[in-house]
């Protein structure tokens, strides 16, 4: 029986770009934590004990009610804890404050975004390029209802779409929603300050729903005068800082414990925004997932305790900024061009154009690096193209995303192998 016949009435479902990288590596013997492999493609931060951070969470007391189904939007005490977290970090001195009615919990970031996109009406959705690979499949599911409009960022600006570009897209295409990751996966750049305020203002004034994916909100670094030697940023960034009325502004924010608190396996994310919008996204959960696990929510209450949360995220910036500097310096020394070295996330977005053939092509680089037991991610995977309706070749075939998510020793080993590979 052929593979197609074995599927019966099911369709052939491709792996999402980053998952494809892992699947190909597994064929060669890779597994998470394997001591002889270096995952410089990973989308998760290191999850073990870390200098300056609180001890890893290890014990959970389960209440009797935790064995039952929970509310679609999450348990009330965690919704309140998340609202308090945002008010403390982003709403100090503002008259409008988030409450539990502004928060909905979901099992991770992809599910949070899936719920929100499922709740969108018959509208046009804009998004920047390049951006997070999962957006392609999330939008694909709803192409019968949604019209998608990509807006390409310019290399000179680190591929970040400017407020001026966004305004032009909103007015030309009557965008009903703007979806973007900020800080950005894959470029490692972040929109903040006046520029982020302009984006929030644009969406407010035009009635465009802002879908702000902020899962890397605490990975912030300051460039200073030398991009090779960044320093840890002062704190997190969020569109929440620029919202005027938390109950009215059309701003939905997505974040969770996955990246900034280094608990990806817990699959715990949240949506925060106006109550009516938050309730709509929770209602889609009745058909999509049935609501989040009460166990991970119970544990999250301790992780988001203010003193513990601040200790974790402060240590995060210190440790990851050091790894960021190492990766930037090493990649540039190898001849990989970084148009705007990362000032957020744990990614570097680099061009291979100056490397010798065939390593100047993303797919060839990826395949050759696997032979050295190093995972990397070809840049074309971040060229979001729902339904593959755009037929032109991707402009990112010579780009790669490199991750400094692994611990320092494994990061250095992976960089050593890439350097030796290029020198060959």
Order of helices and strands: HHEHEHEHEHEHEEEEEHHHEHEEEH
What is the third-level CATH name, the topology of the largest domain? Aspartate Aminotransferase, domain 2
Q: Report the CATH architecture of the largest domain.
A: 3-Layer(aba) Sandwich
Mean pLDDT comes to: 95
Number of domains: 2
As laid out across the biggest beta sheet, the strand order is 2-10-9-6-5-3-4
Task: Explain how this protein is built.
- The structure is a single chain.
- By secondary structure, this protein is an alpha/beta fold.
- It has two domains: 3-51 and 311-423, Aspartate Aminotransferase, domain 1 (Alpha-Beta Complex); 64-309, 3-Layer(aba) Sandwich (Aspartate Aminotransferase, domain 2).
- Helix content is 35%, strand content 13%.
- Strands 2-10-9-6-5-3-4 form a seven-stranded mixed sheet, with helices on both faces.
- Helix 5 (134-140) links the parallel strand 3 and strand 4 (147-152).
- It is globular.
- The termini are far apart.
- The model has no long low-confidence stretch (mean pLDDT 95).
